[in-house]
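User: quick one, fold this
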Amino acid sequence: MNRVIVVACTVFGLSMSGPANAQRVQDFVPVTDQMLQRPADNDWLMWRRTLNGWGFSPLNQITARNVRDLQQVWSYPLGAGIQEATPLVHDGIMYVPNNGDYIQAFDVASGALLWEYQREFPEGVRGGTNRNLAIWGSFIINASSDNQIYALDARTGKLVWETKVLEPTLPARASSGPIVANGKVITGRQCQPAATHESCVITAHDAETGKELWRARTIPRPGEPGDETWGDVPLEERWHVGTWMVPSYDPELDLIYVGTSVTIPAPKFLLGGNDLQHLYHNSTLAIDAKTGEIRWHYQHVVDHWDLDHPFERLLVDTAVAPDPRAVAWINPSLEPGEVRKVITGIPGKTGIVYTLDRETGEFLWARSTVYQNVVTSIDGATGHANVNPEMLFTRKDQALTVCPGTNGGKNWPAGAYSPRTNAMYMPMQNMCMIATTRTDQRDPSLVYGFRTEYTIAEGTDQVGSVWAISAETGETLWKQEQRAGVMSLVATGGGLIFGGDVAGQFKAYDESTGEVLWQADLGAPVSGYPVSFAVDGVQYVAVTTGPSLVAAAARRVTPEIAAADAPAAVFVFKLGE
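Assistant:
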């Protein structure tokens, strides 16, 4: 069902043929759990480089003073379809995932293609988004569109093992790949209604053999904790509490942190009722890495509008001293300045920043960023979010202007955290939607239960915004707004924040001021996750471009930003000689 292939490439703008046969990666050094927990500065070994989800490279060769000399050194075409990839880099070899389980390996210094892997699917299965890979031992590990976990030999691209998670044709694929936590491959998945509640799972597999170790369910079954929060909804009609983004992991606590999505349908009047929680949707789950037990959960908001909360969780040890002038909701028992192990960041489309104690799940503080009208307040003592009653659906053909819309606020484009500034940097959209309910029945064919029309938030014509927010105080340190929607960010030890936008501009921001210090036009939405790494003492920055649903949604409200026709590609930069 699988094959290794080689195609032509473009390096420095010149056409060059790929090798007649796939090349073997020479002198490959296996990746250990210790290397994943403390990665070498030169490498980018997982989705956000480190298990704490920071998206931070300590490399500092490229700085605010010399970034103007940054130049493209090579690019290479990627596969067709949605392209939201994170390149991995280990010892000078780059591994790039593509839509539909299509994986490429490159020599970074030369741009030469070494091998490619193309998975062939059974009848009835289409490939889908593939945001990231994992690397462990001598394996590249991925979660496939046909509901398998599989490992390739990182040296050759040949299949080593594969394990079935669910039936291949079920619509429950993982649109994002795994992390590896102490030898366990951890991944979640989407789970559309046709896949049933049994497919809403997070799994752990042995990284050496692929053997399943445990699976945790995100929809309670009868008699389990949380079952009562669904009211009288039959188990077979509890749908789509997905975990379609990438977890974080704390090796010291041995806890995995993962966020969950909305239910289908989203309006709760179509499920158990507007007054019920419907666990564990729109929550942060802390999962025991050994057993799969849910140690604690925190539900951010009962979601009636498809404002998912599955995004990156930043694990930070910091003094916690929220400034009441910037932070609306604070736990009254918090001792300001106390150093805590926290989860922080913007985990969902509402754009609300949450900070929780990552040992216990205790709510510490929260604040809004972009305009939102769905949460009126959060109880500081309990962390319970109070939903705006004017934004509740109660009948068919009801139209509400909801902010943000289903594009976010925040979406899968990832933010970053820098220990240099103790700040988080978040890509945001000033977008709303007019949502109109389509049914008053529990109809899975209508998926979210409403149709949408996107709008720009009132009071601005700037769709994209990058926010810098103090992890200690919650204050806005700076904000950079622009007409085009913005995409994922990465922070570096050189004091720079790299990120792109839907208009094709790839930029470097000053971490302290937000000033744009450098930019390049890549000709297509900068839809992938930027990374920075070093080979032979030279620091590089790389990013992928291509089609993206988030970019397409942002363009609906900025029609003057024409869709780029350039094919998906990976771009690699370093300082000029």
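User: anything notable?
Assistant: Helices lie at 33-37, 549-556.
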